[in-house]
User: Fold this.
Amino acid sequence: MKKLMLLTLFLLNGAFLFSQEVKTLKQDEKPGNGNIEDLAWIPGYWAGPGLGGECEEVWLPAKDGQMMGTFRFWNQGKLLFSEFFHLIQDGESLTLKLKHFSGDLSAWEEKDEWVEFRLVEMGENILYLDGLTMERIGDKMNVYVNLGEDGQTQIEKFAYTKMTMPSH
Assistant:
């Protein structure tokens, strides 16, 4: 499972052709321009299916040029992995940096490493990062992620609904 989920393969040369849900940057292509203040549609508690199980993302509003969040995935009542991420203002562009953790909180990436998704372009309620797209439609948010293993790629869809944070 861990090997399947390694997202570092997203960053390989961008030579693959993917469906329109996910865009990529060519190896030496400059990232797009964007401002984190234009992403006020992302913060909130989002939950729904993905990867054959249940997923949640929580995004905090932007402060000091960054938006922080977390993700967790469980299947059959068992937490399989989580992520901690920062969407940061990177000059005139944006970069999403994330780290993965197993259910026991052991890190997948080394201490000084993380997975990065650079900005391709953004529009009203849509954010295209290199290998990852976030699109909000009302109280729904679709996240498309390009997953790859052994030279094979597929786009995984996470179909979230904006939720109220549980009080228990």
Summary: The first helix runs from residue 2 to 5. The beta strands are 44-50, 53-59, 66-75, 78-90, 93-102, 115-123, 126-129, 132-137, 140-149, 152-163. The CA atoms of residues 33 and 92 lie 5 Å apart. The chain is about 0% helix and 50% strand.
